[in-house]
From TrEMBL, chains A, B:
It comes from the Eukaryota. This is tRNA synthetases class II-domain-containing protein. GO terms for biological process: aspartyl-tRNA aminoacylation. It comes from Mycena rosella (Pink bonnet). Keywords: Aminoacyl-tRNA synthetase, ATP-binding, Ligase, Nucleotide-binding, Protein biosynthesis.
Length: 645, 645
């Protein structure tokens, strides 16, 4: 038996993430062809790829072993012929029980005497190759596949993500989902500081040393849904989930909001080469099943609700390209007006100065001929802006670069200037906007990106520009995994790196070595945002499924203290129990409905919304409660401090 | 034009609840035949019944008026010919704008010149009769149908139930529902004491006099869903709703649980005569549409999930019959063992003594011949039980009634005793259980009802009895509207009457006069419980839609203080704005799944449940939070009292 490695994984990575050392496989792998409950006698002879959890081996002789391979939909018996030669090569026999594995093999029909009733009872799969996707800890608290010896209820409650792998429970959840079409996650959760402020729910219980105990309302069901998929009890999770954020009033944000939330096990990989154009269909990261599900869902919504047929594939752009061309990580591609990097056109000395500063010179040109929609709305002056505005005239056409303060004020010869004007297609009468930007894009938008949107709004409000009516969907991928540029996160990060989205996002496999080498800034994540007409309507990622990598990110990259890490301890342990590679996404349902209903206010699409300052004028909440109740929950109203923000 | 009165309403009620005095109509009315957006040229000539909100009149001459009639699905123009004679009889012209009305009339085709584009643009409906279902207050805060003069946002937020009647908002919610298949209600609500204890959610805001302000998590979305339907913005509401209860640990109760929740406008009436047998199909109260929807839903679930075809109508039993025959308001009808009222068989003097005490003598007979399943498990003695057990022998067969302490110990002649034994089909060797009960059943179960269940469990566990596998669904209707027998409610009621279910349940129209006369005990409500195999899986009711009646119930029956009434002020006002007759139901989804998955524990059908004491061993919640956070929410951990229950 051969250890399977995706042909596109470079050799060095294959060594770094191979299976012989019982490390999780974090690079691309083939897509499964069937679930473990799907194969029948009709498939005999087929080559198949299965994923699932390896159950205990049964020896069929010195050179023959049988393994049940289980997923939430069924069990298939694997047949493994051990080679007489090279007995030391990696073998399924070395893989701990309950590990997540991928196998490639051939479907064999069973001899009549060996046939069993029920699905997959007529076949075996002879294994040729396998990938150990994630080894289970050798010391699991209990074995969910052992139905003869079920652990006690407290132990199973503590390790619910293992218990959910039990066939009986996983069947119950599938039943529940068939009836309600969703799996639900708890609303009463544990407080865990990640980003925005949570709502707390006091209880009438205290710790042994008399500390009050609280639930917290989820900002998103991120941990429960990952734990659910890690359990193996369900293969896919879907929920319309209520989420909560105790934010100080922000325009059009609601303290409770609704997400279309999903998560999937064994998500697989897109194309393994970079695209040649900025906007393409090339999705290089994992999570292609998530992409497919969301595109199908969105297409169905637009078809049913708007009567519009959307294209069969949404466009894809990397974060880098989006920032470079549109100065935004959620570009509105309904109009052009692209940003140009003019650094390469600069004379050598000037170019070098920019390079040394780690900067580039960006230009947003408004050409009288091509960008006439914007031209008439583009003359503005803003003293405090880092942006320089130059109107090209007969007099400055050859010397604007020399005169430009953004460019650095070095002399540029007339020939060079003419060449640049020709490259940028600039003529007398055009307006150009110049701005210095960091060479490596950071954050969600750049000054020229914001200017681009302002110009578009001006052009629209003056009737010069009307945007196309068909929706422009766009995936943005390959975001930087970590950031220091998010003011909202600085409250918790306090000078440390923050996760751009959340700490569970997996790095691109190409950047795993950089991650471990400490080159944090350049590491890109397997994150994807879905953008509609310049509005981010959702985002998700392939998650880290390697416990060691997750711990490294918590401890070495984000430098979380033990106390800060403690709300994630169950996730870390779940990853050690043979968690499958998985990924998911959440769409902002309220925002989506705002667009679908063609209204400006999120309050127009919620039956009973809160005001912009988070109050409810109908139910007159929040409201006071009686002192009798307050005391039970440990409040001391008379000592209450004044509102602090 | 004639004021329409349902032919089955007795004359006195017709006078008491007629429309001329602009009082809401609370008695039966015909079912609507179409929505206001449904009629087309194909319906010309049809007799129709429409329900909706009356918009401002347009005069077409001295004897001719036009009224738009609007519901959430469209608008139909009504044509009213005013009679030359009897001009003082009730007229739609006297009905306030935005009142809920029912009209009966004939569909007229419009002349070509009067046709308008869009649905219902080809037709009018000439009104013959109408019922004023609910008059709108003459001083509405604003008129939602006036699209040219939309009120300011704060006013609309305060009276969201009127704003939701606006066509634009109601279209948004319909769109939202098409996408998510549900309408959602808020989770962050205002605290309102009704039954169980709520979870509070502290905010970082205080009142002007420095009192902390809280949201509360809903025990059920009862008020929001009624307000939604009262608004007229949606015709039907459906949600899989999360509900919360801060209860001290009870077996198999979860602090957060899930309801299948629905509410419908313009629910109409069942049969208006009593049934002749205890178990029947006769549904005498309102809410037949709710019954139909739930039976269809349940039938579909059992068909899809269990592959079982359920009967096309579930059985119906009144609370009175259920208590009399089974000693339970959720009888398990999978086995017989019925209770017999033997008072009528007693000699006159004894019977009179029972009558004077307001009691009856109930008997649970176990006949060796017929109840042999139970016979062998029925011998038990329980000293503290109010139940007397007699084994019939040769010696006591003629004198057991004379000897019985439950019967009162009066001598009964041998002839009388023989006659009673014959009536009860009692023979030597039979076992009978006797118990005195109140003549008017109270509460959810009687001692003999509990004994009946115990005997069934004993018979099952000893293998004597196996229950049928097909599910036994049963509706229980006509519950007492008020109670003093619910210990759980006494905490809030403190000696006053409590609502058996909730204060929004409408009385049966036959009992409205008794309600206003103060005969509270005998008033039956339009409540219905759905019982499956002796387990209550859901309950609901037709709601009070008459603001004056709702206020009377709050103030005069339940004797709520102004402060206790204040959380209901928006509902009272919504009823004054032309709220339609409406009703709904909630099914306990977790309990339903427990039965469908054939498991004993609710925790087996929830992905991440809490333990029986309401803690989460996986996420280790509830948990402490940092003092920095505590202080922001007004907690003083150091002064915290010890856990009080």
């Amino acid at each position: 038996m051969r250890v399977l490695a995706s042909p596109r994984v470079p050799g060095s990575l294959r060594r770094a993430y191979n299976t012989s050392s019982l490390r999780p496989h974090c690079a691309p792998f083939p897509k499964r062809t069937h679930s473990c409950g799907a194969l029948t006698a009709a498939d005999v002879g087929s080559r198949v790829v299965l994923t699932g959890w390896l159950l205990p081996e049964r020896k069929g002789g010195k050179l023959l072993s049988f393994f049940p391979l289980k997923d939430s939909l069924g069990t298939t018996q694997l047949v493994v012929h051990h080679p007489e030669v090279a007995p030391n090569q990696p073998s399924l026999s070395d893989v701990p029980v309950e590990s997540a594995v991928l196998i490639e093999g051939t479907v064999l029909g069973r001899p009549p005497a060996a046939k069993r009733p029920g699905p997959t009872g007529d076949i075996d799969v002879q294994v040729d190759n396998f990938i150990l996707l994630n080894p289970a800890d050798a010391n699991l608290p209990f074995f969910p596949s052992n139905s003869r010896n079920v652990a006690n209820e407290d132990l199973r409650a503590r390790f619910r993500y293992l218990d959910l792998r039990r066939t009986a429970l996983s069947a119950n959840l599938r039943q529940r989902s068939r009836v309600a079409q969703i799996v639900e996650t708890p609303v009463l959760l544990r407080s865990s500081p990640e980003g925005a402020r949570e709502f707390l729910v006091p209880t009438r219980t205290v710790t042994e040393d008399n500390q009050p105990r609280f639930f917290a309302l989820p900002q998103s069901p991120q941990q429960p849904k990952q734990l659910l998929i890690c359990s193996g009890g369900v293969d896919k999770y879907f929920q319309i989930a209520k989420c909560f954020r105790d934010e100080d009033g922000r325009k059009d944000r609601q303290p409770e909001f609704t997400q279309i939330d999903l998560e999937m096990a064994f998500v697989s990989w897109g194309e393994q080469q970079a695209s040649t154009s900025a906007i393409s269909n090339v999705w290089r990261i994992g999570g292609t099943e998530v992409r497919d599900v969301i595109e199908t869902l969105i297409r169905k919504i637009w078809q049913d609700v708007e009567g519009i047929e959307l294209p069969s594939n949404f466009k894809v752009m990397t974060y880098y390209e989006a920032m470079k061309l549109y100065g935004s990580d959620k570009p509105d591609t309904r109009f052009g007006l692209k940003i140009v990097d003019v650094t390469e056109f600069l004379p050598g000395e000037q170019r070098l100065a920019f390079e040394n500063r780690g900067e580039v010179l960006e230009c947003l040109p408004i050409r009288q001929s091509n960008e006439s929609n914007f031209y008439q709305t583009s003359r503005r002056s803003d003293v405090n802006s880092p942006i320089e505005c130059i109107v090209l005239t007969d007099k400055n056409l050859s010397i604007w670069l020399t005169q430009s303060s953004a460019a650095g004020g070095t002399a540029v010869s007339e020939t060079q200037a003419d060449c640049i004007n020709k490259n940028l297609q600039l003529k007398v009468g055009d307006v150009i906007w110049l701005c210095r930007s960091p060479k490596v894009p950071r954050g969600g938008s750049s000054p020229l990106g914001q200017l681009r949107l302002e110009l578009s709004e001006l052009a629209q409000s003056s009737g010069k520009l009307s945007l196309p009516t068909e929706p422009h969907f766009l995936w943005i991928t390959e975001f930087p995994l970590f950031t220091r540029s998010d003011a909202d996160k600085e409250f918790l990060a306090q000078g440390r790196w923050s996760s751009t989205h959340h700490p569970f996002t997996a790095p691109m496999w190409q950047d795993i070595e950089a991650l471990y080498d400490g080159n944090v800034e350049g590491v890109r994540g397997q994150h994807y945002d879905l953008v509609l007409n310049g509005v981010e309507i959702g985002g998700g990622s392939v998650r880290v499924h390697d416990a060691a990598m997750q711990d490294y990110i918590f401890t070495d990259v984000l430098q979380l203290s033990e106390q800060e890490k403690s709300p994630f301890s169950q996730l870390l342990h779940a990853l050690q129990c043979g968690a499958p590679p998985h990924g998911g996404i959440a769409l902002g349902f309220d925002r989506l409905m705002t667009i679908l209903c063609n209204t400006n206010s999120i309050r127009d699409v919620i039956a009973f919304p809160k005001t912009s300052v988070g109050t409810d004028l109908l139910f007159k909440s929040p409201a006071t409660v009686s002192e009798r109740v307050l005391v039970q929950y440990g409040f001391r109203p008379q000592h209450r401090p004044v509102h602090s923000t």
